[in-house]
């Protein structure tokens, strides 16, 4: 059971949590059972953190609050989930990219590795009400490059601005 707003963010949250889990799995050294537990804990933490900061009618509202960030500092949500499986922040920094930004917004989950890397979309669904979701032409090439493990060519999208 949950509130209406909470239900709507499950896909976005599970997409984001699965992505971080995939990065950990790719780095190696973390067991499948630990990964499963990490993913569940991360989803739980995100759900708790976002529940009053999810605005499907204004998807960009609260975007900065929901942004997951590793930048010489471990994101507290990732840190918390990792703690439940006994991974220290030091270990996380070895396993995960040192610069990772993950935006978890209604209808769209995207990420960037590196401060000037391309922004890649992990999940996108059309917004209700007939607004056309923006198309990113390099979406597939970006994912391919992630799979191959090369850094993608620098393309700057200003698709998200967080106003302070």
TrEMBL record:
It holds the Pfam family BTG. GO terms for biological process: negative regulation of cell population proliferation. Gene3D superfamilies: Anti-proliferative protein, N-terminal domain. GO terms for cellular component: cytoplasm; nucleus. SUPFAM superfamilies: BTG domain-like (SSF160696). Residues 96-115 form the Anti-proliferative protein domain. Belongs to the BTG family. This is BTG1 protein. It comes from Acrocephalus arundinaceus. The gene is Btg1_0.
């Amino acid at each position: 059971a949950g509130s209406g707003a909470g239900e709507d963010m499950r896909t976005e949250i599970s997409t984001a949590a699965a992505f971080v889990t995939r990065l950990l799995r790719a780095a190696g050294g973390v067991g499948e059972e630990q990964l499963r537990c990490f993913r569940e804990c991360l989803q739980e933490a995100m759900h708790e953190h976002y529940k009053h900061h999810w605005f499907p009618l204004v998807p960009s509202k609260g975007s900065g609050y929901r942004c997951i960030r590793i930048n010489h500092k471990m994101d507290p949500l990732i840190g918390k989930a990792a703690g439940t499986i006994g991974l220290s922040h030091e270990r996380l920094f070895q396993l995960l990219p040192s610069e990772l930004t993950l935006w978890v917004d209604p209808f769209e989950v995207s990420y960037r590795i590196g401060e000037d890397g391309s922004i890649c979309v992990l999940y996108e669904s059309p917004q209700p009400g007939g607004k056309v979701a923006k198309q990113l032409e390099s979406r597939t090439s970006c994912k391919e490059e992630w799979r191959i493990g090369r850094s993608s060519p620098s393309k700057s999208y200003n698709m998200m601005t967080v106003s302070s």
